[in-house]
Design a protein that fits this description.
The structure is a single chain. The chain is mostly helical. The protein has one domain. It has 7 helices and no strands. Helix 5 packs across helix 6 and helix 6 crosses helix 7. The longest helix has 24 residues. The protein starts with a helix and ends in a 9-residue tail after the last helix.
Length: about 120
């Protein structure tokens, strides 16, 4: 049994690296939510953070139901992220960046000069 634990890929450096990525992602989402006029703490509450992101995108909270249905949630997620990009004055290309490289593009939205536009 010990040899299984010794060969595990969960080394201390992996743990620390993962923790750093998670903390940075939380900070990005927190600032992004606050920039959109929502409570930053919503970024750390499971399910509520998705609901808040849906509201930031300009959609009804009922879209949360779409996010619970397999396959449909992928399409809804794409639409939501593209609409979030639009709400911050960015284009569809930036929305695709949010989908594929969220860690980078969410940071650009959070810490960049773009402002949230309540109405589209």
């Amino acid at each position: 049994m010990n040899h299984l634990l010794a060969s595990s890929s969960l080394s201390p450096s992996y743990f620390v690296g993962s923790l750093v990525v998670v903390v940075i992602a939380i900070i990005e989402w927190w600032v992004l939510f606050a920039k959109a006029g929502r409570p930053g703490w919503a970024a750390i509450i499971p399910i509520y953070n998705v609901y808040t992101l849906i509201k930031i995108s300009g959609h009804s909270g009922w879209w949360l139901i779409w996010m619970l249905i397999p396959i449909v949630n992928i399409i809804a997620g794409i639409i939501i992220w593209i609409d979030v990009a639009k709400k911050f004055g960015k284009g569809v290309g930036f929305g695709i960046g949010l989908i594929l490289l969220n860690f980078i593009f969410a940071g650009i939205l959070a810490f960049g000069s773009s402002n949230y536009e309540k109405s589209m």
